[in-house]
Amino acid sequence: MTERSLSQIAEKMRDIDVAMLSTHTQGGAIAGRPMSNNRDVDYDGDSYYFTWEKSQVVEDIERDANVSLSFKGDDGFWVAVEGKAEVIRDKAAFEEHWNEDIDEWFEQGTDTPGLAMIRVKADRAHYWDGKDEGEVTLAA
User: Fold this and answer.
1) Is 136 part of a structural domain of the chain?
2) Distance between CA 54 and CA 78 in Å, rounded?
3) Residue 113 domain-assigned?
4) Across the strands, what pairs with 78?
5) Residue 79 is part of which domain span?
6) For 22-79, what is each residue's pLDDT tens digit?
7) Structurally, how many domains does the chain consist of?
8) pTM of this prediction?
């Protein structure tokens, strides 16, 4: 295993737009769904995704905050992140992470009724690039 820093992993993640977000359902199963980071790619251990407040993913997170994210780059670089999710309902926080590409899904922008944002705070990230693998621990 080679030791890489979070900034080295973040650089490799910069061009990866979609992650698979996995949560725990009420019955204990694992549910996954693709989520776009909406070009918010300055990765520091936190990821942000917009969704609907009444979505299944929000319900799952509010019941069990333990989630995982999976990323795959075009160059064969993979990252698996484990962390804790929280649902954010604050318009000022929405505006910090908004870009106009999201308007396609949420036509009233940050004023869209029922808008919510998911923040995933990473505890650790495991990476593979075909030749090398390693892990970065982020939680204290």
Assistant:
1) no
2) 31
3) yes
4) 72, 128
5) 6-131
6) 999 999 899 999 998 766 656 778 889 999 999 999 999 999 999 999 999 888 889 9
7) 1
8) 0.88
CATH number of the domain at 30, please.
Answer: 2.30.110.10
Q: In this structure, is residue 123 part of a structural domain? A: yes
In DSSP notation, the chain reads -----HHHHHHHHTT--EEEEEEE-TTS-EEEEEEE-TT----SSEEEEEEETTSHHHHHHHH--EEEEEEE-TTS-EEEEEEEEEEE--HHHHHHH--GGGGGTSTTGGG-TTEEEEEEEEEEEEEE-SS-EEEEE---
137 occurs within a structural domain: no
Give the whole-angstrom CA distance, residue 120 versus residue 52.
16
Q: What percent of the chain has pLDDT over 70?
A: 93
